[in-house]
Amino acid sequence: MISFEVLQGNGARRLIEVPEDMNLSLMEVLKASEYPIEATCGGIALCATCYVEVLQGGDELDGPADPELDMLDTLPSATAQSRLACQIKINPKLQDAVLRLK
Amino acid sequence: MKTDICIIGAGPVGLFAVFEAGLLKMRCHLVDVLPQIGGQLSEIYPKKPIYDIPGFPEIKAGELVSNLAQQIEPFRPGFTLGEKVTTVLRKDDGAFEVTTSEGTVIISKVIVIAGGLGCFEPRKPEIEHLEKFEGKGIIYFVKDPDSLRGKKLVITGGGDSALDWTIHLASVAKHLTLIHRNETFRGAPDSAEKVFELARAGKIDLLLSASLKGVSGNGHLAAVSCIDAEKRERIIDSDYLIPLFGLSPKLGPIGDWGLSQDKNAIPVNTIDYSTNIPGIYAIGDINTYPGKLKLILSGFHEAALMAQSAFRFVYPDQKLSFKYTTVNGVNAF
């Protein structure tokens, strides 16, 4: 199991645990956990509606590829910690990460 | 013009709906905001292979669109491309009147929304009082560069359109500031180099590692504030702010037609993919229901069931009998 923490804009914190062998993206897990993530494009780095801030553990993750960087660049409020959840695979690199949703 | 079914969205699912409707002798007219058919498949990934179309171990998105166009050709669909549907009204006789951004009017008995991700609308910066100045100094598209002649402009963004408009408007504006969040641009390197040159030559102000903070003015925009690389607030006198952060898919005007909505999607009844408004159906990526999968093949299935149900609106006096194409063939119009 991989566990990481999710903070919401309203201050709510929750520890999410998820098996690592299901080939899921972070976006899919957040959606399944009933967070209000639109993910309009379904996970192809096209709409940037699944973006999260990785407050802790961001350096451990695989860096964003070009399509994700292009999309992040269009987000008016993106910071150096912003990522598209649909482009982050659930794997051990996510262990103990802290994410903030909009 | 008049038709049986007006299909909003000419992506793969909208196209296949023409086929399923055609088998039941219903005529279709397709409207799409994009200038070509195929939706995302043509616009975003025409060269990418798709592996989950039944009967095609692998097919490029663009080829699937060509095949669908060929498949529906016998049913002679009409097309209105490059226009966005803005209003849908129900007339006294129960028919729908669909009007586009360019003023095209389509009268139909049934509407099928196959809008995929929806309309792509400009992404807006998250700052206070933004709405107050929209159209009063804040513009998301440059329609008429001449109207900006001699004005003080602020452009924000770092993509190709921000770079291109900065280069174009540098000689038109009285003063131009480009605000970009990063130190480098992801847009075309040539354009980025031109922008750096303009800045070195003093033709524009280039604020890198800077972010937009606020807007102010008395009725019309007068100033834009930003936080610069040294974390200081700067106030920039400006007549126009042009945020160019690209486009984001939204339901768009569809959201104003009285349809139920759930997170940018339209909830439907899975019996026939009808919406809460009788005579309006939603198929493909734009709809939602328990267990929804955003797959082209799901959209095809939804189109078939929709057509069976729409039949009663188009031919209220006729009884529908289901026939296989292997038995009946495809009877062209």
Query: Proportion of β residues of chain A?
Result: 15-25%
- Oligomer kind: heterodimer
User: Spans of chain B of 5+ residues with little confidence (pLDDT < 50)?
Assistant: none
Judged by helices, strands and strand pairing, the structural class of chain A is alpha+beta
Could you tell me the CATH topology label of chain A. Ubiquitin-like (UB roll)
Lateral strand order in the biggest sheet of chain A: 2-1-5-3-4
Integer tally of domains of chain B:
2
Whole-number total of structural domains of chain A: 1
Figure out the total of helices of chain B. 8
Helix-strand pattern of chain B: EHEHEEHEEEEEHEHEHEEEEEEEEEHH
Secondary-structure element pattern of chain A, one letter each: EEHEHEE
CATH topology of the largest domain in chain B: FAD/NAD(P)-binding domain
Number of strands of chain B: 20
Q: How can the largest sheet of chain A be summarized?
A: 5 strands, mixed
Helix content of chain A: 10-25%
> How many beta-strand elements of chain A?
5
Largest sheet of chain B: 7 strands, mixed
- Cα distance, first to last residue of chain B? 17 Å
What integer value in Å does the Rg of chain A equal? 12 Å
Q: Give me the secondary-structure category of chain B.
A: alpha/beta
- The name of the CATH architecture of chain A is Roll
Q: Can you lay out the helices and strands and say which pair or pack?
A:
The complex is a heterodimer of chains A (102) and B (333).
Chain A: E1 2-7, E2 13-18, H1 26-32, E3 51-56, H2 66-73, E4 82-84, E5 98-100
Parallel strand pairs in A: 1-5
Antiparallel strand pairs in A: 1-2, 3-4, 3-5
Chain B: E1 2-8, H1 12-23, E2 28-32, H2 40-43, E3 49-50, E4 59-60, H3 61-72, E5 78-81, E6 85-90, E7 96-100, E8 105-113, E9 119-122, H4 130-133, E10 152-156, H5 160-170, E11 175-179, H6 189-200, E12 205-207, E13 211-218, E14 220-227, E15 233-237, E16 240-243, E17 247-250, E18 266-267, E19 280-282, E20 287-288, H7 296-314, H8 325-328
Parallel strand pairs in B: 1-2, 1-8, 2-5, 8-19, 10-11, 10-16, 11-12, 18-20
Antiparallel strand pairs in B: 3-4, 6-7, 7-8, 9-17, 13-14, 14-15
Helix pairs in contact in B: 1-3, 1-7, 5-6
